[in-house]
Design goal:
The protein has 58 residues and is mainly alpha-helical. It has one domain (4-49). The protein has three helices and two strands; from the N terminus they run H-H-E-E-H. The protein has helices at residues 4-11, 15-23, 40-49; strands spanning 30-32, 35-37. Strand 1 (30-32) and strand 2 form a beta hairpin. It is elongated.
């Protein structure tokens, strides 16, 4: 499990964009102890589900 800063480093996405995704319930996240926690296995699955292959229709 990684916090917001950790998952930003892991994915290369800006913290502000990750907050946007959390607000819109577009990324898997757990709130615990007043903080956001991201499971890297779930994030990897989320990335695969949201990746378009070259030559594929978007």
């Amino acid at each position: 499990m990684r916090d917001l800063a950790g998952i930003a480093d892991y994915t290369g996405l800006p913290v502000t964009y990750l907050r946007h995704l959390v607000r819109n319930k577009a990324i898997p996240v757990t709130k615990f102890g007043g903080r956001l926690w991201f499971d890297t296995i779930e994030i990897d699955k989320w990335i695969r589900r949201n990746t378009t292959q070259p030559g594929a229709a978007a």
